[in-house]
Structure formats: C-alpha cells, structure tokens
Amino acid sequence: MRARENARPGRRNEAVARPRTRARSEVELLLHHAVRLTQPPPRRRAVFRAPPAALVRPRRNPLRRNPIRAYRAGVDVDLVVPGLYHLRPDFGQAYLWLDGRSATLIDTGTVGSGPAITALLTELDVELDRIVLTHGHEDHVGSAAELRAATGAPVLAHAGDVAVIQGEQPRPDPVLLDWERPLFDSITPNVPPHPPCPVDQEIAEGDVLDFGGGARVLSIPGHTDGSIAIHLSRSRTLFTGDTIAHFGEVVLGTFNLDRAQAVESFRRLAELDTEVACFGHGEPITRNAGAELRAAAAKLND
Ligand SMILES: [Zn+2]
Ligand SMILES: [Zn+2]
C-alpha cells in the first residue's frame, strides 16, 4: 500500500529528489557500516519508491502493479531521475540506466544481488545490454558473473582491473591512512569475495559507449588502477565509482591504492558539466552536482 501511496503525483518530488540526510562525517558513516556489517544481516523489508505516475504511462509501468515483487530478495531501489534507478544491495551500490527497453547496469553490488536485479529487469520489461564495472572491488563486481550468466549481457571494464575481476590476481591492498585502517579491518572481512567474472570488452579513456546518448569513459586511477567514471553529456549525468563518495557531504572515497592520484582524479571529475552525480557509496545528487563536486575538490589536500 505504501508503494501505491508513493506513486501519487503529490509524492513526485520525494521520489525524484530524496531529502538529504543530516550531514555526517565520513568516519561516522563508515563506522555505521562497520557496525552493520558485524551484525547478521536483518531480514530486509523491501522498500520501493515507485516512479512518479505522471512520468510513466500505465502500460509501461508494471512496477506500479506490483512494486514489491522484484525486491523480495533484498535490494532497495529508488528512481533518481526518469530512466535512472539507484539499486542498493546489502553493501555496495549499482545503477540502472534505461534507454527505452535497453538497460545498462553500472556496477552490480555484492555477490548474491543477481536474482533481485534480474527480477527488477523483468518487472521493468527491459533487456540488459551491458554491465559496466567502475572498478574491480568486490562490492561492485560481486554479482557481475551471475548477471552475465543470467542475461548474456557483456561485461565492460578497464584493463587496469581486468585481472582482478577475472580472478587472475588478488585485489591489491589499498594504502590506508591511519584512520582508515580500523574501518578497513572491520569492513572487509564482511564483504564476500566476488566470483571471478570474464570481462568481454576492455574500455579505456575516451571511449564512447552506446547508451545515454553517448557515454564517455574517463580513466580515473587512484582508488584502483582501473577505476573509471562515466559521463553522459546529454543528460549531464556522472557516475564516479568509488573515487568520490557522498556521506552527507561529498568526499574523496576511502581505501585508495594511491591517494594523490585519486585526488587528481577527483579534481578532474569536478570540472565536468554535471547536473546529476551518482557515487559508489552514498546518495546521488540530482541538482547542480558539479558545484558540490567543485566545492569539495577545493577542500582536498594533496
Ligand atoms: Zn572500491
Ligand atoms: Zn565500493
């Protein structure tokens, strides 16, 4: 019933632009995650904010008929802007971009998120045409192998992380700042390793992928060697991967291989013309995100 209420036009703004949470420090947020991850996962109740009714024709909106069915496996989902969904498995995040019935998944969440994501594809009545991985960490690659097998969609990633994604090399340990170490030690044992996943297409700086009116690939090393961002110039939408996070405020992502390089990559992303920014961790920003990224970049130390 709640989902039906949310579908009313009067709730439209809430679905499109979610209220910002109280500003919390990155440490607070990560501690919150760390505590969560040391507990057995609660039975999650599916939460779904249905797309605004005014934006979706009834025949094209099967989610309104049964918004809960797709989410029994435990993935929350929000509409960020029309055609862009934010998926939140237990840890990690993913985004689904739609061009009509053609879907592109950006990251995949932890292992086991596949059934809920394929159920979502079915509910939306779309075909998954590609899976783009922003980098090789297990909270982003986790369900790539199962989704590739279930849908036949090719997996795209940068050469710098391909060996890790394919299970040919272990994930290199990040170079941790002192305050990051206890968080890393408490979080990582609770994020399951990803099953190796074949990469079907290596992507590199300057490539333009066939979705969103032309999706430009930016190579942004630092968090990992093969980290990428995706920028859709037509809709001014940016997917940052873990180079940038949004924990109440916009911050440099944690657990980087090379912090100085990650800072440089952050600054590069901040210069892009961006209205909507989607992060590897934290809530998307749906209005004038570029200004927030630039303000955050100005505060970064080298
Ligand atoms: Zn990462
Ligand atoms: Zn991550």
TrEMBL record:
Give positions of region: Disordered.
Answer: 1-20
Name any one GO molecular function: hydrolase activity
Statement: the UniProt record of this protein carries the keyword Hydrolase = yes
SMART domains reported for this sequence: Lactamase_B
Q: Which residues form the Metallo-beta-lactamase domain?
A: 91-281
Query: Which UniProt key words apply to this protein?
Result: Hydrolase
The UniProt entry, under InterPro entries, shows: Metallo-B-lactamas (IPR001279), NDM-1-like (IPR050855), RibonucZ/Hydroxyglut_hydro (IPR036866)
* UniProt-listed Gene3D superfamilies: Ribonuclease Z/Hydroxyacylglutathione hydrolase-like (3.60.15.10)
Record flagged with keyword Transport: no
> Protein name, please?
MBL fold metallo-hydrolase
